[in-house]
Design brief:
Elements: H1 2-19, H2 30-51, H3 58-64, H4 66-79, H5 85-108
Length: 115
């Protein structure tokens, strides 16, 4: 009787595993990724353009150049078919955080003396 229960439990587990479709990876919409890339590119352009006239922004210009690359790295991780669902979610979150940083830093430029 015990063997019968163990057999039924194993068969039930196998059927459950077969019935679950593989989870789709949450892909960031192309439009969102493009907007983020554009926002960071605009920040780099403004910060570095302003650094010519406002010496205090030279460091911000140097640091800003890494932001578009950070977006590209995160997007490549998210698009990699070998990435786990968790990796994709974290990569998408990273992209959004970098874009947020670009937007916030762009908003600070006028207070630093940039137009």
């Amino acid at each position: 009787m015990r063997w019968l229960l163990v057999l039924v439990a194993c068969v039930g587990c196998n059927k459950r595993a077969e019935q679950q479709p593989p989870a789709e990876l949450p892909v960031m919409p192309a439009a969102e990724a493009k907007r983020g890339q554009d926002a960071c590119a605009a920040y780099v352009t403004k910060a570095c353009g302003c650094a010519d006239t406002v010496p205090a922004l030279k460091e911000a210009c140097g640091l800003s150049r890494a932001l578009p690359e950070a977006i590209e790295v995160s997007l490549s991780v998210a698009r990699n078919p070998e990435s786990t669902r968790r990796d994709v979610l974290q990569a998408n979150d990273s992209v959004r955080k970098v874009v947020k940083e670009c937007i916030e830093e762009t908003a600070k430029l006028p207070a630093a003396g940039c137009n």
